[in-house]
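WARN retry 2 of 3 for item q-0093 after timeout on previous attempt; input resubmitted unchanged.
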Amino acid sequence: MRRRWLPTIPIALAILLTALACVPAWAVVDLSCGSLVIRIDETTGRITSARIPGLNAELALTGGLRLTEGAEAREIELTPVSVTGGTPTVLRFAPEGEQLAVEVQVAINGGSFAWHVTLRNTGDRRRLLALSLPLDVPGDGPIAVYDGFLPTDALTEAFDGPMYRTPIPLCAAWSDAGGAATGIDPREHLSFIATSGEPLAAGGAQVATRTQIVLDPGQELSVELFLCGMTGEWGRGEALHHWYATAPELFKPTPGIDQRILRTSGQYLAWNRNPLQKEDYQVREVARRTRTGWDWCINPFKRAGEIVVREEWYDYAPANPEKLAEEDQVSWAEYRARREARFASGNRLGVAMLLYTPSQIWLEEQLAREQFADAIVDDPSQQTRYPSGYVKPQDSVIRVFPYNTSWGEQSKKDLAEVAQLLNLYGFSFDTATGPAKYRGPGMDGLPERGWDESGPFVREGVAIRRLIEYVHTLRNEDGTTLGVVPNIRSSADYNSCMAADAALKEGEPWKGMRGGEWALRDALGAKPACWWESYALDSFVDYKNMTRDEIAAAYQGMADFMCIESLHMGFWPTAAFARGFESMTERYLPRIEDCIDAGWQPVTAARSDDFTWLTRYGSGLDTHIAIGNETAAPAGGTLTLGRGWLRAPWPAPTVALLAEIPIIGRLFEAPGVPAFTGYDGAELTTQATEDGLTVTGVTVPTRSADVVVACASVRLAQPVADSSVTAALTGDRTRRSLTLNVTGSRAIEPAGGVRIPDGMALTGARVDGEPVTCHEHNGVAFYGAEGERQTYRVEMDFRSAIIQPEQARLLDVEFLFEDQPAGFIVLPEEPTEAEEIAAERIVDFFRWFVHVQTDAEEPPSFPVVRGEIPRDDSLMIVINRVDVDAPTVALPDMRHLSIDAPDAAGLRSAVDELLHVLDTKYIAPPTFVWRRSTNQAGLIGEWLEDPVAAE
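OK item q-0093 returned
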């Protein structure tokens, strides 16, 4: 940033007039961040104009800090003001007669401005204040507005509160001439958030994000406001992009949590097992094939909300004793033992068993009134008491506040204790939308207080956020950070969304207004979510009067839409949605998994007139573009990409890397042009133009969705226009080859970086047929060759980092003979638990396959022996944790398969890779379970073949 004086008369006269006038009315401060240049008037502290970098015209943007008091919104005039230039620029307001000190530090925060506002009450009375940074955004015609919930293309009437419901503190307005967003830093824990907007008479709109805070006598509070510019090209996505960048840790999962929490929910797969898929081998294989990572372990306690199940609180007189379930009528010791066994069983089968709690906001009424009366919530706008049937059917429950109260302290103790008792990896928080207002004694003096017409309160969402933050301080016995998956929706308090690691959306994509859940996606950022519930076919069609084929077609159509919308929005289908469809497990779920791992991005940076929709995940060499075709015919065409948004910094190069290959050093100065292939490696051509990139050759089947992925970045001569890269990736899970055919606008030394496929290692590289040495860093193989050339060909070969034999040879092994195991699994004499589980996983894989193929009630198991290898001609699958550098699956001969790994994690990875390869031969998707419609159609135990595979 820089400070600039704009004299309108000779300097000497200017100095004289300044001295006489005392206030330099003509002084301004110019500040610049990556997305916006603003001019602040030093006499008022207000923004008087702005410019969007990359757009030529000035933007007549105006705005400034606004402070009001009370429900009548009495304006507090923020004058006089003093300005201190520098980094940051400081604005000090001294509102006359207000007994308030107001200071703003305006700092650059990446591509946005942070307005750090500090308020101090110097008087002797409580102040109910409203703080915002309203902006007047100009526009000649219709102006689009985002209210923190959903955008509208043309604002026509004023709103306050907002137009719909707001989960995030962000508001924006934009047109083709540019725009801006104003909001509040997502790290702030605030109880009151509202966005507002109104059309301006001269065109454009005024937008604001407001928080209402309570300031006691002598109290000082700080709130960080947010401001960024927008080109208008990518709508609300630009505002979200810069807003996320202010607190990136809040928009991705907590580091160190178990990665299963980022997969989909089993929807009671391992907890309340479906009678038709209840055996261990069924649970384990259905979970693996549906990408199930965790389960929602509902109500694992006798007394509502008492998650530890303490002996002193176990026996009580419930409000509705006739509804007490048989499982709750056992002794305390037996209840605890049963619960521990159920959690241990699910964990052993590979499912992270997340202990359910109603976000610690519902508690059995007697316990609440006797022990935690200070935490009881009295909010007429919300349901605060259920006399029967909520949480536990036998209990009357009451709403309680789990922060800065006796129940808040008990909740932290309980979460820590039960996590240790059950060796948990995390919790599932139900009812986590957080709308209730707590006005009890625990709120006194809290900085998180807001206020409304009834006075001060603390939002329930703040308490839930604080509690989830506490969970993140807890550790599993193996050192893993505990995670939380809350049940939230688009109208959830933003605090719940900020703290979550993933989310459960209790609804299907066809429930309510399509696209309404973009608000939840905006609030979560790159964190995953999953749909919940079921297909509920009877709510769409009269299946009782339909044939088997008609019912099957209806199910397949709903499954296709589920997957299309999941790829569109970065949501998971749960196991209940995936069972019965080959298209799910064989085609869609791998694509959904890779996109979710890359992380949803708010700026699509891609356009096309040839497809229904586009969504971007990841950046740089992790870019995935999901593409929807919702038409009745296959679609093919071109994508137009904004190169600047796709660029991500290269992994930091080592000094040695730059010293050894100077060409690669120059590559870091100009990362170049990304190249794309189809998800399956299909050939695509990426063409560089003056304005960006085009990707040609993209095809998507009928009523389907697919993904294109970045595979390389190639250094090209400047200008890059008229340059192209044609890329293709061939092979299978054990061997792959990438080819790049590069044509530049003029000759240049070949150089670039290639993403090494996950789970693979580079084995060779050639440029125009000549071997070249590559240097690997953070999953990227950098190549360079001497000699300028305008066209050249790159070839790179990869092999599995774990599976040594080629896939075809491995699949030639006879694991089964006439549906019977063709050998033994051999473990050490005294196997570790990890070795035992590895054997169980292989046993269960083949038991599931035989069960699906033959409908056997008790499919045969591979016999497991310990110690010596049997001396016969049978197949031997030998599992060892040995002193090796990395996990390895080897095939010395066709009757001996060895699985070696240095530790438990390596053993899991080795078996994962082995089973993924075997999946290509032993195809057995999870089957339909009982529903009235599947029963009528005879689909129970069946699965529908992928219609796209048949095209």
